[in-house]
Amino acid sequence: xxxxxxxxxxxxxxxxxxxASGFGYSAxxxxxxxxxxxxxxxxxxxxxxxxxxxxxxxxxxxxxxxADHTYDNRDIAAPVASGSFRTAGMIVVPCSxxxxxxxxxxxxxxxxxxxxxxxxxxxxxxxxxxxxxxLHLGHCRNMVQLTEMGGIVMPPVPAFYPRPQSISDIxxxxxxxxxxxxxxxxxxPGRWKEH
Length: 195
Prior knowledge:
Strand order of the largest sheet: 3-2-1-4-5-6
Mean pLDDT: 93
Largest sheet: 6 strands, parallel
Radius of gyration: 16 Å
Strand content: 15-25%
Oligomer: single chain
């Protein structure tokens, strides 16, 4: 039997935002994906909503306005919770230690961890921007486990070779590096050029 479901003309990427620090990355990733014509499906954890108010002037409403679709993290019946919903993958930016542990151990108690589990089981790209330091052995083991499952752990380590002049430059470069992992045509400042 042949699947006659049409493949979407636009690529879809799920963006999860959890209660770690680094919401500027979330907004920038959503902005770059929008500029590339990628349809975004945003899920924000309750902890992220609380932390956002302490860290930035960015509001939940502002972040939701950058996405094409948004879902409640408690809604495990949302389309992104199903493997039959075709996506190019998922980015969790920022990713808290709690969310990393939930994904690495296959717990699907909320939409973010369930969608990440689906992305992994469907062998799609999962990138988590783990935002914790220093690390204890449990964090390291969860990162190893997620990597062994096919995920990519990408902490927001600033690159200095493009000679950033501001925090915004650092955030933009790291966000572009995340999107570069999806083989999308993103402008990456300082990309190594062949001669």
